[in-house]
Description:
Layout: H1 2-8, H2 44-47, H3 57-64, E1 70-76, E2 83-90, E3 93-99, H4 102-117, H5 123-129, H6 172-182, H7 189-196, E4 203-207, E5 216-222, E6 225-231, H8 234-250, E7 253-254, E8 260-261, H9 276-293, E9 306-312, E10 320-327, E11 329-331, E12 346-348, H10 349-369, E13 378-380, E14 386-388, E15 393-398, E16 433-435, E17 442-444, H11 454-457, E18 466-467, H12 469-479, H13 483-486, E19 497-500, H14 506-513, E20 534-537, E21 552-557, E22 564-567, E23 572-573, H15 583-597, H16 611-616, H17 619-634
Parallel strand pairs: 15-19, 19-20
Antiparallel strand pairs: 1-2, 2-3, 4-5, 5-6, 7-8, 9-10, 9-15, 10-21, 11-12, 13-14, 16-17, 16-18, 21-22, 22-23
Amino acid sequence: MDCARLTNKQKEPKPDELAPEKDPLNGNSLKKGKKRKSKGGESPSKKQKISLPPKNALMQLNELKPGLKYIVESTTGPAHNPQFAVSVEVNGNKYIGEGNSKQLAKHAAAQMALASFVQFRNTPKVLTALNQPIDQLDFTTDAKNAGFSFSPPELEEDRLHRQIKMDTSGSPVSKNLVKILSEAAKKNPVMLLNEIHPGLDFKLVEENNAVPSQRFRMTVEVEGLLYEGTGPNKKMAKASAARSVMSNLYKVSYNTYGFSFFAPDSADAELFIFPQSVADKISKSLLSTFTGIMTGDPDHAKWKIIAGIAMTKDETMEDLQIITLGTGTKCVNGEHISMFGTNLNDCHAEIISRRCFKDFLLTNLEYFLEGKSDQSIFQKRESGGFCLKPHIKFHLYISTAPCGDARIFCPHEEGAIDKTDRHPNRNSRGALRTKIESGEGTIPIRNGQGVQTWDGILPGQERLLTMSCSDKIASWNVLGLQGALLSHFIEPIYLDCVILGGLFHPNHLKRALFGRLENSLKDLPPLFKLNKPKMCATSSPEIRHLLKSPNFSINWTIGLGHPEVVNATTGKTEAGQVSRLSKTTFFQRFMKIYDRLSHIHDYETPKLGLYASYKNVVKHYQEAKRALVLAFLNTGLGHWVKKPIEQNEFELMY
C-alpha cells in the first residue's frame, strides 16, 4: 500500500538526479555507493518534505568539476553600464561568458561549458539551471542551440552583417574594438557608438514639419566628420545618426528595425556593401526633389509609396542626379484596359519610375539624332548600337519593400517568436504573385492562370491580374530596364543598387530580386545575365503610414519640369488625356528613332506600324524572356501571367 501511494504521488527529486551517472569528462563513476538509512528506517529523501531550490549552471559545473578557476578577462563599457568577460577552462577548452556583473558573466561561462559536453538525465531541472524554456531545448539534439546567453538566441538568417575589415594586429584598442563590434547584433546603434566613442554630443539642427517622417534632423561629429540622421522624433533621429556613423566608419549595417546583421564570409557579403552615405544622400535628394516639383500643388503631394531612380557618373558616386520619380499603389480597373495603348496598366510607384526611366532613355537617344551626343548618357558600340558611357550607374530607391515576395514576412516576429519556420526559402516563399484589381496587396498565382482573356475581364467575369513589383524587378534583373523596344538600339541596362526606406530584410529581398532564379535560369543569349544588385537600407527608415492610398499617381522625369498626375483607376491623366508614359506615346517616339537607326540589327522586318511586331522581332530579348518564364516554372514558383494579347495588337497610323 505504501509503495502504491508513493508511485501515484509526485516524488521529490533526489539531489543527485541532476548529475549524470558517469563524469562526462573522464568517464569515472560519480556514485559513492548506496545511501545509508536513518535511524528511523527511512532514507533521507523520504523523510525530507521541503523541495530544494533548482541548481543553477554554476553549481552544476562545480559539482561536475570542482576547483575550476574563473578569470576576469576584461571590463568594458561606461561606469554606469559595465560589461564583464569571465573565462573558465574545462578539459582544455576555454569558455567565455559576458554580463553586466562578474557573477552574471561567471554564470554565462558556466552555461557555455555545460552546453558543450553534458547530457543530463533530468533535463527539465537542467533547463532551469541553464535559463532555457523546458519545451525549447534538448541536449540530445543537434548543437544548433549551443552558445547560450541570457537573451534569446537569434536566428541565423537575422545575423547577416557585412565583414568587418580592420587592424587586428593585437593592440588593446584594436582588440577592444573587434570585441565591441562582435556584439553589434545585441545593442542599439547609439549604445554601440557610445562604447566606441564615449561622450559624443548629438545636436538638433533642424525641425521640419513638412515631412513628418523626417521632422527632426540631428548631427554628431566623429573623428572630425559630421554625420546626420532624421526621424519623426528626436530619439529616432539620434539613432539614425548613430547608424550612419556605424555604417560608414565600421561597416555595421542595420535593417529597418535597428538590428544589425552580419554578412557571411562569402560572395554574398559584397551584395550588402554599399556606401551608407550615398544611400542616405539618394533618399534625401529624392524626397527633396519631390517636395520641390510639387510646390504649388499640395493636393497631389500626398503619397503612400514613393520610388525613383538616381544616376551616378563617377566611381565615388558623389555626382548624383535624381532622374525619375513615381508615386502610387494601384492598378487600372479591368473595364478601362485599352486596345490602343493609351492607358497605363500599373501605377505602382516603382513601375511608374521605371516607365519614366524609359522616357529618359528615349530622350538620350534623341540627343544623338539631334547632334547632341555630348549631352547623352550613351556612346556608340563598335559592333553597332549604343551602350552606357563609363562609370554611369543607376540606383533604385523605394520607400518600402516592393509588393510581393520581398514583403511577405513578419518583421517583428522573425528571430524571436517564430520557432517552427526558420527557413527563408520554404515553399510559400519565392512564388510569383499578382496584384489585385481595385485593391492593394498581392496573392499567389494559381495553376492555370498564365493567360488572361479580354472578353473575360471586360464584363467582370475575371479580375485583371498584374504581376507584383517584386516579380517585375526580378525580371529587370534578367532582361534589363530598357524593355523590348529599346533593345533594338541599346544593350541591357541593369540596376547597380536597390535602396529601401522601410521593411528591409536582406534575406527576403535577395530571394525576391534574384535569389530564386540563381539555380534555375539557363541559356541566356549574349549580353543578358542574372544581375545581382547591391541592397541597402537608409539610416532613417520610413515610418508606417496609416492612411488611405490616393487614387492618383505622380510621374516625373528630369528635364520635363512639371510632374504629371494620372488617375490610377483609368490609366489616363486626371484631365482624361493620354499619359506621356503610355505605350502609344513611347511607340511614336520609338518609330522616329527606328526610321533612322533600323540598320543596327539584322532582324526580320516587322509588320509596319504594329506595336507587338516591333517587340517580337527582337529575338535576343524574347529568348531571354522565355528563359526567365521557364526558370520560374521549372522551380514550381508559378507561371508568369500575361495581359490579354489584344493589348499589344494596336497599330500606329502615320
